[in-house]
Amino acid sequence: MQQQDNYDKKRKVFLIVVLLLFLPLIVAIIILLSRIGKIEVATKFAPFSSEVKLNGSRINNNGSNFVSPGTYDLEVSLSGFSTYTEKITVDSETKYIYGCLEPNSDEGLKLLENNRDCDSLEELQQKENIESNVAYSKKYPLLSSLPVKRPTFSIGYTYLETEETPTLTIDATSAYINSAIKALKDLGKDYTEYNVIITDFDNPFEKALEYDDSSSPSSTLSSYLKTVSGSTEILSSQQVDDYYLAKFIYKKKGSSSSVNYYVILKKEGDLWKVSSPAYPVLTVFNTPDIPKEIILRTNSL
Question: Considering 25, 203, 294, 298, which has the largest number of Cβ atoms within 10 A of its Cβ?
Fold first, then answer.
């Protein structure tokens, strides 16, 4: 009987030891499983004693949280401070949720004076700016080569969060537009994915009157060019399947300078039609519904 008791005790000790050894592993597996499909987000709202909630559920402040992708109602509160609310979206690019509450009472002001939590967020802001710039440069590599500034023209860009892509801006008089476009092409990076705008540029072909479609692409192009006042001269053209690519010079009446234009005609049935107004540089924005390789080929005429 005593031997049986000793055996049972040893067996219990063995089971306890095994359980203690494997418990951390079991906990780790449970934690990993609970994080599947979620995104690790560093949450820091100063003062760090603030309560942070997503969709009404409290999450860690001044620490990491694993959050499922989606849209959330963020609420941050602390006695003596104005409650901060915002609708946020958590996705694969979300790494931080942070900010500093504004005091609305003497209690909040006093706490803020003796608290450096807000100051510590400056380093996080700098880190996020660096990461954002790196990601931005990878997504839009051309921008790393801008601005280009010459005595006769400049090439820069603007970017609004409401826009899907940055807008490239060319500032040049008509006498130097060709030089500016050449400089853009010489950067050796794809510019056709951007909206390229020449500032203060009056494109007469946007106001072109009706022209005659023809079964001949050259006839359609000739009719199209006659819709504007001034002189034109076709420099080069070629047909690629159902597309007709052309480069021509346009000189405004009374002007001493000329500008190179590009245009693409597309065959529809038996007729050739201008796909969109001619412009000094073609992109997916000003020449929609045209394959990118056709746009690139046209710009290289």
Answer: 298
Number of domains in the chain: 3
Residues 133 and 164 both lie in one domain: no
State how far the Cα of 117 lies from the Cα of 96, in Å rounded to an integer: 16
Q: Where are the beta strands (DSSP E) in 5-164?
A: 39-46, 51-54, 57-59, 63-67, 70-77, 84-90, 96-100, 148-149, 153-158
Q: Which helix (H) or strand (E) holds 237?
A: strand 231-240
Same domain? For 174 and 223 the reply is: no
Instruction: State how far the Cα of 133 lies from the Cα of 152, in Å rounded to an integer.
Output: 29
Residue 200, Cβ density class (10 Å: 0-12 exposed, 13-18 middle, ≥19 buried)? exposed
Write the pLDDT tens digit of every residue in 209-240: 688 899 999 999 999 999 888 899 999 999 99
C-beta neighbour count of 43 within 10 angstroms: 21
pTM for this structure?
0.60
Domain that holds residue 177: 141-201
pLDDT tens string 82-120: 899 989 888 887 888 888 888 888 888 888 777 778 877
